[in-house]
Amino acid sequence: MSAALTGPPLARDESVEKVTGTARYAYEHGEPGGTAYAWIVTSPVARGRVLAVDADHVLRDDDVIAVLWHENAPRLGDVGDPVLAVLQSPEVAYHGQLVALVVAKTPEAAREAAAALPVQYEELDHDVVLTPDHASLYKPEKVNPAFATDSEQGEPDQAFDRSPVRVDHTYTTVALHNNPLEPHATTAIWADDGSLTVHDSSQGGQPVRKTLAGLFELDAGRVRVLNPHVGGGFGSKGTPRPNVVLAALAAKVTGRPVKLAVTRQQMFSLVGYRTPTIQRIRLGADRDGRLNAIIHEVVEQTATVKEFAEQTAVSTRSMYAAPNRRTSHRLARLDVPVPSWMRAPGECPGFYAFESAVDELAAELGLDPVELRIRNEPEIDPETGNPFSSRNLVACLREGARRFGWRPGPRTPGERREGRWLIGSGVAASFYPTYEMPASARASADGNGCYTVAINAADIGTGARTALRQLAAEALDVPAERVKMLIGDTDLPEAGIAGGSMGTRSWGWAVSKACRQLREQGVSSVTANTAEDIKALGKKHTRGAYGAQFVEVRVNRDTGELRVPRMTGVFAAGRIVNARTARSQFLGGMTMGLSMALHEEGVIEPAFGDYLNRDLASYHVASCADVGAVDIGWIEEGDEHLGGAGTKGIGEIGIVGTAAAVANAVHDATGVRVRDLPIHLEDVLR
User: Fold this and answer.
1) 26-125+180-263, what's its fold?
2) Considering only the top CATH level, what class is 344-434+543-685?
3) Which residue of the set 355, 360, 383, 652 is catalytic?
4) What confidence score (pLDDT) does residue 680 get?
5) Catalytic-residue membership of 300
């Protein structure tokens, strides 16, 4: 493939602004003087009703401006999302649900008053523990976003029973919590003419605008959402969260600009998290390693107030060739906060279990785990029968094995040692589907050889702003420094969210089209939309990014201490626009997968009905000391069936296979198969 498929490693456009502190985030906007500060009050009970709020107790303080709760808060319009119907009902559906809001002249006064606010509750019995046979289990109508809940081909049970080599195991993952560096925050300002402006930490301004317009019964054109700089999201900022509604509500009631930031502790209940899962996987194969049957059955949790069904087993349907297959999803409705998107929802927990089971099958067969995956490479999509637009998983496995120094052949656990350390290597494959959404972009010539390109994209720290400028310069056939990018403002041409690894792919398509038309037509300004282009692309091919991750672990024989000195990831993700920012995305994803495997764990406490560890002191994430050498590479991949700029998504695939690769490496080192994440010291010491 041509080297032009990988773009130059330009530094991020906003890098100097960020490191010097001049990049302004949502909470840092607002008018000097007169700004008020809001603080959320949350429920200490997991199920019940709010009976009374003694607002007068804190309103005696001159610095406290208002206390809002369900009996005095303005009524909101119905937008079909009960989580955003804030302060509209006395019902408490989970521990940590917001029940009141204090607005004060200073953040300190707001915080102090919120802590002192007397709230009386009626407490009811609650149920918060996910079990594989929970009485509330049911089949949802669909799984995120609109996939079939169950899928079956052939005769999976009979094929499994007839297979000479079988594995049948259950794997579990715990609740994982989004913790972007910038908490969810909003500054809301109502103008004298009744229009609303919000600076919101969001992965997409358009859904926020639409939601606020519906809640406050405004024309969408009277709502402006700005998010030029966003400090991470991981999916938690992909839809509007209660903070933006509360800030707008408080600003309307008080007549002042209002700032609101969700605390780190409140983020564990108010902004979504990855559901825990219980996954039973059965694989049946011939003695040469050819799969006959794949059965992947998932149990996960949702909330009573709103359903979210993670698509955990969906990607299993098309990963490897097998004539008989079944996948299913069942939900337990519990008194818990609402789960939601977290980096690679579905694929991340699903591939941990599935790729662990594949490794177990390789052990049963006495076969190299890399070779087993290659032997089951499908020629067409096993689920749909469609051809793949491009599928370079085998190339990723082979190149990754070469770069990592993988020793081919069957594994013998525990054979490699250095002193008191056991050494193991693990591999796992990755997949993430390629999505796109219609977008509009405007390209304008400034008359002096420079250009301005505008699109309501969101750069959540991925480098999207820079990649879009590179694509614009390419389409205009000018140096990148002659292009100015405008993003993060709903007054700009409409575009979708930064989510589903489709941001740069969707926005870049519109940007390239507008710039190309501007150059070809010789006019001063062009606005282009990709809706018809995407419609014409159709669904004749299965499109997705693939990857292979290799991990080395060291396990101390005496203490069980686990170390990961090196990881290798090789990916096939279409055209890579910016080599520097792409590497950062892959590296970040793999780091997050390592964190999932060894550190992150939401610990539920049945007695009071919530997660015990609700801060970064007790909810552990991987730090620099936990991450060794990371080697990132990619396959130069041209794909004529992608459309647009030829890109696929890269933001999420890095996390997908990493946890399985770590767990597989732990087995190679110790002979202990850990099927429940995260891996603890006591797991390997047994």
Assistant:
1) Aldehyde Oxidoreductase; domain 4 (3.30.365)
2) alpha beta
3) 652
4) 97
5) no
